[in-house]
Amino acid sequence: MIRSEFTNDSELYHGNRVPFVPRYGAGSSVNGVIDTRYGALMPRLAVNLVGPHYFDGDNQLRQGTYATLDSSLGWQATERMNISVYVDNLFDRRYRTYGYMNGSSAVAQVNMGRTVGINTRIDFF
C-alpha cells in the first residue's frame, strides 16, 4: 500500500490522488540454480503488480491495475562468464506509461510490450 497526498493549501486538488503514484504495488520472484556438468542453469520467474494511478492532478487520466510476468534463464558457463536470455512482459500486457490532455483530447504513451533479450557478462579480472 502506498500513501501519498497533496499537502499544499490549494483546494484545487483536495482529495485527489497524486499523479504517477500507484495506489499499491507488489512484486515477487522465484529463482533457482540447477547444477549441470556444463555449468549452472539459473531459471527465474517474476511477477509485478501495479495498482491504479493517474497521470494528472485532476485525476481524469487513469491507468488501471496491471500485472506483468518476466522470465529468464541464465547459464554460468565458467566462473567468469554468464549468459542469460530473458523475456520481460511475457504475455505482452499493454498499459499506458504516460498520459496528458492535448486540448480536449487525451493522449497516452503505451509501454514497449514484450521484450526479449540476451545478457552476457565476462569478468576479465
TrEMBL record:
It is found in: Cell outer membrane. Residues 9-90 form the TonB-dependent receptor-like beta-barrel domain. SUPFAM superfamilies: Porins (SSF56935). This is Yersiniabactin/pesticin outer membrane receptor (IRPC). One of its GO terms (cellular component) is cell outer membrane. InterPro entries: Beta-barrel_TonB, Beta-barrel_TonB_sf, TonB-dep_rcpt-like. It comes from Klebsiella pneumoniae. Keywords: Cell outer membrane, Ion transport, Iron, Iron transport, Membrane, Receptor, TonB box, Transmembrane, Transmembrane beta strand, Transport. GO terms for biological process: iron ion transport. The keyword Chaperone does not apply. It holds the Pfam family TonB_dep_Rec_b-barrel. It is a multi-pass membrane protein. Its main location: membrane. The keyword tRNA processing does not apply.
